[in-house]
Amino acid sequence: MSGLLVEDLTYSYGPKTALKDVSFSVAAGRFCVLLGPNGAGKSTLFSLLTRLLVSSKGRISIAGYDLQCQPRAALARLGIVFQQTTLDLDLTVAQNLRYFAALHGLSGKDARMRIDAALDQLSMRERDGEKTRSLNGGHRRRAELARALIHDPEVLLLDEPTVGLDAAARRSITEYAHHLADEGKTVLWATHLTDEVYDKDRLVILHQAQVLADGFAAEIAGDMPLADRFLSLTGAEA
Ligand SMILES: Nc1ncnc2c1ncn2[C@@H]1O[C@H](COP(=O)(O)OP(=O)(O)OP(=O)(O)O)[C@@H](O)[C@H]1O
Questions:
Q1: Do 72 and 100 lie in a common domain?
Q2: Does residue 192 have its Cβ closer than 6 Å to ligand 1?
Q3: Can you tell me the distance from the alpha carbon of 88 to that of 144, in angstroms, rounded to the nearest whole number?
Q4: What's the rounded mean pLDDT across residues 22-44?
Q5: Is the beta carbon of 15 within 6 A of some atom in ligand 1?
Q6: How many CB atoms lie within 10 A of CB 151?
Q7: Does 238 contact ligand 1 (Cβ within 6 A)?
Q8: I want to staple 3 with a disulfide (CB 3.0 to 4.6 A). Which of 86, 125, 186, 236 is the partner?
Q9: Average pLDDT, the chain
Q10: 36 CA closest ligand 1 atom index
């Protein structure tokens, strides 16, 4: 399938099992929230999806490409925003994006056009000459999202992208990511905050290395607020 497929994925750090037989899929153009309390295994899953870690047990397919057998094709179709910012704060926004474009084999006019388009999408074009250090947290996140979109990936991974942002910036990034799915991107959004989940979202709840629930958010919540359902399933505060 295109979109994202995770099948029977298991990963351990020595004796500590961080993921155990994790399976789920996200259809192309869907927004899926990976919801889990601290230590659930979200970052480990993201490391496996980006090949920072490799597991011998399980399978990952990105936009129809098997990550193990066709890693270059799979990773070329993946955009990622990590939990911790990875922008170079001493470079301007445009320089950060240009460097990343070069990593994807884009240069010259082509790179310039992609960078401008990505910054336009995030309403960041007028800030392209600013030092990244001078941006507030919300604008830094926007710059990272723009950077993740430069190579027009089919699948976008966002690992707790609202950490440290104020309420307005949090809402704006959350809404924008949903908009990207409406436009056809497959989005996997990791969070431990239930207020970032929309009723219509696909939802995978991860807890203690395993998938506890997988379905549409409204169905999983059922007759109670999602925060209460999450608490009842995991014992964790949302
Ligand atoms: N390098 C490591 N060595 C040993 N154990 C680790 C390592 N990294 C993570 N773990 C453990 O693996 C489990 C899953 O951690 P992981 O960071 O993937 O969870 P998480 O859901 O991303 O949590 P958080 O929201 O706090 O980032 C946790 O029990 C964690 O302590």
A1: no
A2: yes
A3: 11
A4: 95
A5: no
A6: 18
A7: no
A8: 186
A9: 93
A10: 21
State yes or no: pLDDT of 237 exceeds 80: no
Q: How confident is the model at residue 112 (pLDDT cuts 50, 70, 90)?
A: very high
CA separation for the pair 57, 233 (Å, rounded): 26
ipTM value for the complex: 0.96
Residues 32 and 204: beta-carbon distance below 8 Å: yes
pLDDT given for residue 165 in this prediction: 85
Q: Are residues 114 and 223 in the same domain?
A: no
Owning domain of residue 148: 85-152
Kindly state whether residues 190 and 208 are assigned to the same domain.
Answer: yes
Which atom of ligand 1 is nearest to 19's Cα? 14
Is 39 close to ligand 1, i.e. is its CB under 6 Å away?
A: yes
Indicate if 119 and 160 belong to the same structural domain.
Answer: no
Span from the CA of 150 to the centroid of ligand 1 (angstroms): 29
Give the model's pLDDT for residue 236.
63
Residue 149 buriedness (CB in 10 A; 0-12 / 13-18 / 19+): buried
Which one of 6, 13, 52 would you pick to mutate in the ligand 1 pocket, going by the greatest count of ligand atoms within 8 A of its CB? 13
CA dist., res. 29 & res. 22, Å (int): 21
Q: Is 83's pLDDT higher than 90?
A: no
65, 77 contact by CB (below 8 A): yes
pTM strictly above 0.90? yes
> What mean pLDDT comes out for the span 39-68?
95
C-beta of 37 in contact with ligand 1 (< 6 A)? no
